[in-house]
Specification:
elongated, 3 helices, 3-stranded antiparallel β-sheet, mainly alpha
Length: 90
């Protein structure tokens, strides 16, 4: 069974991410920025994952509507979105 993470939303308190991670190597502005980035990434994780899934579905509908070789023109973008989803859900 996969362990669950600490309940969201997380908060940054200086260099610390609500007691979960301490980003204080030098205790400077960069460490605080790292803590804030971690908090933003974690708190928006599920929204971004859902946005990728919605975008992938929308692209599929658009390709179906246009037909023909439309998918070939977007295969790289589709693969980027699929890989992002796959890496998050792994």
């Amino acid at each position: 069974m996969k362990p669950s993470h600490t309940q969201l939303p997380w908060k940054a308190n200086g260099n610390e991410v609500c007691g979960i991670a301490d980003c204080c190597f030098n205790r400077d502005k960069e460490d605080r920025a790292n803590a804030e980035l971690i908090v933003k990434a974690v708190n928006n994780h599920y929204k971004l994952l859902e946005a990728c899934k919605v975008a992938l579905e929308a692209m599929g509908h658009l390709i179906d509507d246009v037909g023909g070789n439309a998918e070939k023109g977007y295969s790289e973008e589709i693969n980027i979105i699929k890989e992002a989803i796959k890496s998050v859900e792994a």
